[in-house]
Amino acid sequence: MENTLSDADIGAHLKTLRLAKAMTLDGLAGRAGVSRAMISRIERGEASPTAQLLARLCSALGTTLSRFFAAGEVFAMPLRRRQDQHVWRDPDTSYLRRSVSPDGMGSSVDIVEVEFPAGARVVFEQQQFDAGLTQHLWLFEGELIMTAGTETHRLEAGDCLFMRLCENHAFHNPSDRPARYAIILNRNRA
């Protein structure tokens, strides 16, 4: 059985992060460029945020999507079984995001598995992070056209692309088949 996150789970977690940062709805709205009303609806579980919207909110809160979807378990466990991995589906593109990495291990690396539908396209605007945050995209199946900053790359199965989070990113699946890939995010700013 999958550990799918509901809109209520997403909203409660967003509110917890916002309050932990001592940020008001208006403060988060101003930093993220998202209306106060939309953030309030998300926090109440009445709206499903898209990947782009959630990435903007995470950036304004000083975190990443990977950290947002981490469970924050009290007891660290080095093994995270597939059925315990959090799964989230983007309501806009229907892409499926699975948080693979075990939580609470103190690692600066997060691994995310993505199933990206045929023809789908997602654009992530430049995040408010420094250039020390990086990610690798390792394509297992299908094909992707990736734009990182000003460069565009066509990826085929087996290819791996390095990117910095401080750049704009556009993910596009030009084929009629889903693409499956891993994102390996490194938060180490050393």
How would you characterize this protein structure?
- By secondary structure, this protein is α+β, with helices and mostly antiparallel strands.
- The protein folds into two domains: 3-68, lambda repressor-like DNA-binding domains (434 Repressor (Amino-terminal Domain), Orthogonal Bundle); 79-186, Sandwich (Jelly Rolls), CATH 2.60.120.
- Helices cover 24% and strands 31% of the residues.
- It is built from five helices and eleven strands, in the order E-H-H-H-H-H-E-E-E-E-E-E-E-E-E-E.
- Helix 2 crosses helix 4.
- The radius of gyration is 16 Å and the shape is globular.
Helix-strand layout with pairing:
Elements (H helix, E strand, L loop, with lengths): L2 E2 L2 H14 L4 H8 L3 H8 L7 H10 L4 H5 L16 E4 L6 E4 L9 E8 L4 E4 L9 E8 L1 E6 L2 E6 L3 E5 L4 E4 L6 E8 L4
Parallel strand pairs: 1-2
Antiparallel strand pairs: 2-3, 3-4, 4-11, 5-10, 6-9, 6-11, 7-8, 7-10
Helix pairs in contact: 2-4
